[in-house]
Specification:
127 residues; alpha+beta; 5 helices; globular
């Protein structure tokens, strides 16, 4: 989905923008560092997850212990995070690129190698 479709999907979820943040490819999409992404990845704190379980039916993801699937296009990471790691990008809360880069480097997945270079170039151009 492109950036506009991504934002429409986020809006359709009706989430409190002060209680979640976009992560992964969505962060890069919002920054304009990629043209499209296949899914919506967000991070929420455990207390908000408990509230959302009354509105949504989540399915446990086999990928990571903290990951849940909301639907075929939406994955939810249930983890604590610091508000200082979240920036508003195009009106949506997104995890900082610095934190995204750190995560990608720690996990060093082959599929992230090109993304790592894109983020590094972008961050270096801002310095």
């Amino acid at each position: 989905m492109n950036k506009d479709e991504y934002k429409k999907k986020l809006d359709a979820l009706g989430l409190d923008k002060s209680r979640y943040c976009v992560i992964s490819g969505g962060t890069m999409l919002l920054y304009g560092l990629k043209e499209a992404t296949e899914d919506v990845d967000i991070k929420i704190r455990p207390d908000y997850f408990e509230e959302l379980k009354t509105r949504f039916k989540f399915k446990k993801s086999p990928k990571y212990s903290y990951l849940w699937e909301l639907d075929d296009e939406t994955e939810v990471a249930v983890l604590d995070y610091s508000d200082s790691d979240v920036v508003m990008v195009d009106g949506y809360p997104a995890e900082s690129l610095e934190l995204q880069l750190k995560w990608m480097l720690e996990h060093n997945r082959p599929k992230d190698q090109k993304k790592i270079e894109v983020i590094r170039r972008y961050l270096n151009s801002r310095s």
